[in-house]
Specification:
With 228 residues, the protein is of the alpha+beta class. The chain has 2 domains: 42 residues, no CATH class; 126 residues, SH3 type barrels. Helices cover 24% and strands 25% of the residues. It is built from 5 helices and 13 strands. It has a 6-stranded mixed β-sheet with strand order 11-10-9-8-13-12. A 3-stranded mixed β-sheet has the order 5-6-7. Strand 5 and strand 6 form a beta hairpin. The two termini are 18 Å apart.
Length: 228
C-alpha cells in the first residue's frame, strides 16, 4: 500500500482489470435510471424457506438462500410486465423476447458500433426436478451451420477468443482469452506475455477499430494509461 495524503489514509493501487471494471460500472450510470422502493410482507416466504431448508441441505449439500426466490419472482414480474424486459442502447431501447436472468453476466449487448452475439439454447420441456438434475454438467454444442449469419460488424464470442491484439503501431499486445460484461458494455480480456498479466479492453469501435477474423488479429487504439 502506498501512503496517501493524510496520516490516517493509505492509497491501495488498483490492477488494470479493476480499473477497467470500475470504468464500465461508471459508464453504466450514463443510461437512464429509475428506482422504485416498495415494502412487502415476506412472512410466507420466510416460512416456506424454514420448511424446506433442512431437506434441501440434506439433498443438495448446501443451504438455500433467498436469492433463488428473488430470481423466480423477478422472472414472473417480467412476464407480467414485458415492457421492463429491455436494454438501453445508444440507438434505442432493445426489447427482449425471452427472459434470461444471470447473477454475473449480461446478455446480448451493443458495445459502441460492434455487436457481440451471446448464443442461448431453448431446451425441450423438463417437468421433473430429477430430470433436470440429470442434466447437470451436460455440455451443449451447436454446429456453425446452425447459427444465424452475422452482419459485417457482428461477432460471436468464440470468434474473438484467441485473436492477437496489436496496437496501432503494429506491436503485439497480447491475446484475447475471454469476453466479459459488467453491465455497461463488453470487455476483452487480453492476456499479455510475461509478468504483465491480463488487461481489460473496452470492445468499442473507438478503442478497437479493426477486427480481422481472417488474419486472426485485432487492432486496438489504446488510450494512454488504460494498459500499463
Amino acid at each position: 500500500m502506498v501512503p496517501g495524503a493524510g496520516a490516517d489514509e493509505v492509497l491501495v493501487p488498483m490492477t488494470q482489470m479493476r480499473k477497467g471494471i470500475a470504468a464500465q460500472m461508471t459508464r453504466a450510470l450514463q443510461a437512464p435510471h429509475a428506482y422504485v422502493e416498495m415494502e412487502v410482507d415476506a412472512t410466507r416466504l420466510v416460512n416456506l424457506r424454514e420448511r424446506i431448508k433442512k431437506d434441501y441441505q440434506a439433498k443438495e449439500g448446501i443451504s438455500i438462500s433467498y436469492v433463488p426466490f428473488v430470481v423466480k419472482a423477478s422472472a414472473e414480474a417480467l412476464k407480467r410486465n414485458p415492457t421492463f424486459n429491455a436494454h438501453w442502447t445508444d440507438d434505442g431501447l432493445l426489447a427482449k423476447r425471452r427472459i434470461n436472468i444471470g447473477l454475473l453476466e449480461g446478455e446480448t449487448v451493443r458495445a459502441g458500433d460492434w455487436v457481440l452475439i451471446h448464443v442461448g439454447f431453448a431446451m425441450s420441456k423438463v417437468d421433473e426436478r430429477e430430470a433436470a438434475e440429470a442434466l447437470k454438467g451436460t455440455a451443449l454444442y451447436a454446429g456453425r451451420d446452425a447459427l444465424p449469419a452475422l452482419g459485417d460488424d457482428e461477432f460471436y464470442h468464440a470468434d474473438l477468443i484467441g485473436l492477437t491484439v496489436y496496437d496501432t503501431g503494429g506491436a503485439p499486445v497480447g491475446k484475447v482469452t475471454a469476453v466479459h460484461n459488467h453491465g455497461a458494455g463488453d470487455l476483452l480480456e487480453v492476456t499479455r506475455p510475461g509478468p504483465k498479466g491480463a488487461a481489460l479492453l473496452p470492445f468499442t469501435r473507438a478503442i478497437v477499430p479493426t477486427v480481422d477474423l481472417a488474419s486472426g488479429r485485432i487492432v486496438a487504439d489504446i488510450p494512454e494509461g488504460l494498459i500499463e
